Amino acid sequence: MENKKLNGLHEGCKLTIIGAGVSGRALASLAVRLGFSVFVTDKAEINPKTKEIIKRYGIEYEERGHTEKALEADALVLSSGISPRAPIIEGALKRGIPVVGELDFVFPHLKSKVIGVTGTNGKTTTTSLIAHLLTNGGFEAEAVGNIGNALADYAFSDHEWLVVEVSSFQLYWSQYASFDISVITNIAPDHLDWHGSYEEYFASKTKIFNLTSDNGIGICQARDVEEIKKQLNRPLKIIPFVDNKNKVVDWPEGIYFEDGQCVLRDDSKIRLFDVSNVHLIGTHNLENAAMSAVVAYYSGLDPQVIEEGIDSFKALPHRCEEVANKNGIRYVNDSKGTNVSSTVAALNSIEGKKIIILGGKGKGEDYGPLAEAVKEHTEAAILMGEEKIKIAEALSRKGYTNFHLANSMEEAVEKAVSLASPGCTVLLSPACTSWDMYENYKARGEHFRKVVNELTD
């Protein structure tokens, strides 16, 4: 059957799937089920599990680079993260070969209602919490997308709701996705190497509101509303989260914290939960919980059921996760803090004395805002990884001198322990990716957990 939204693609057309990671593997499987002739190409080596799956489907593939065979196609379908400046993409566009993003390829085959969650930080926690609230409330719901479960695997599924974590990369390529409810948790500079500028990154993130259905709802930070509206090409009901500390406008509709309660002001004033029922570290996670609760409310859940779900939700690994408390010192694993804004949010949100472990592989960000937050909120900083000298220089420029260099996680934790006192939090929130020393942020966080757990009480 022809899909006019996808350049007239129909059964029997030849598709090349670019990328053989989790999303690429799922796209290839879906394409075969839809009757397409499929070829998979990856610039890196394809892992054995993926090879086994694509061989089972009879799919041809190549690895360690893209050849001319990849362009012998009626269209290219992109897995998550493929840049428009990739040579294979530029080559396809020069030849007039259509390029289709992951969301646009999958959305026509979704039977479920869809909630989209994007933002610089807090996406995974918010996605997981929304799915938890809906499931706890009796809906058949699943957290999918960049959270780890490829969206393509849920084509034709009978779930009532899919809660999709969506990246700026996926949104960049999308024209036809349609969300019932959309959330932008927050926006700060990130992935500028991919997008080329903060303006382009902002445009990709806010595009999710333009991809929300006419009777849908968009939820975002009040501070971002006016800039987001400049990107909109049609009307959309927007519910802002209003930070009482930095409130400039008294929004008639919005999400507020009042007297320890999360309150939604819409046609009436609706109490959603007591903040004491949020078992997540940091005020930034209160924002994630508030946005999640509002999504659940507009999905049809009663406030009492929402509060029960908030109370039963626990922190996700590597996201401001308390891993131990030894000798009065708390150890918090925020290895997913891979950019400056995420680490600044953690520092601003976690109360009390703090010693922070920073560093890794950088993204080309300005460390000035990080240095300001470290100076204001920490007693000491331990620096490791490729960026330790650059971060040290940024700290020095702000007049912060109590930093120490380390060559390993063991050395970093040992130094932090020697500087900490009872009541202090040792926080791993690197503000950098992990790829200089670890396979991913999870491996870094697990190593931190292991080193901490080996400390003597």
From TrEMBL:
Q: Which EC number(s) are documented for this chain? A: 6.3.2.9
Keywords, sorted A to Z: ATP-binding, Cell cycle, Cell division, Cell shape, Cell wall biogenesis/degradation, Cytoplasm, Ligase, Nucleotide-binding, Peptidoglycan synthesis
Domain Mur ligase central stretches: 117-296
Record keyword Cytoplasm present: yes
Domain Mur ligase C-terminal as annotated: residue spans: 318-432
Q: Where does ATP bind?
A: G119, T120, N121, G122, K123, T124, T125
What reaction is this protein's catalytic activity?
UDP-N-acetyl-alpha-D-muramoyl-L-alanine + D-glutamate + ATP = UDP-N-acetyl-alpha-D-muramoyl-L-alanyl-D-glutamate + ADP + phosphate + H(+)
Pathway of this protein? Cell wall biogenesis; peptidoglycan biosynthesis
Tell where it localizes.
Answer: Cytoplasm
* Recorded GO MF terms: ATP binding; tetrahydrofolylpolyglutamate synthase activity; UDP-N-acetylmuramoylalanine-D-glutamate ligase activity
Q: Which is one Pfam family of this protein?
A: Mur_ligase_M
Q: Does the keyword Cytoplasm apply?
A: yes
Which GO cellular component terms are attached? cytoplasm
GO biological process terms on file: cell division; cell wall organization; peptidoglycan biosynthetic process; regulation of cell shape
* Similarity comment text for this entry: Belongs to the MurCDEF family.
PANTHER family from the xrefs? UDP-N-ACETYLMURAMOYLALANINE--D-GLUTAMATE LIGASE (PTHR43692:SF1)
Q: Which NCBIfam families match?
A: murD (TIGR01087)
Function of the protein: Cell wall formation. Catalyzes the addition of glutamate to the nucleotide precursor UDP-N-acetylmuramoyl-L-alanine (UMA).
Protein name per UniProt: UDP-N-acetylmuramoylalanine--D-glutamate ligase
- Give the species: Thermovirga lienii (strain ATCC BAA-1197 / DSM 17291 / Cas60314)
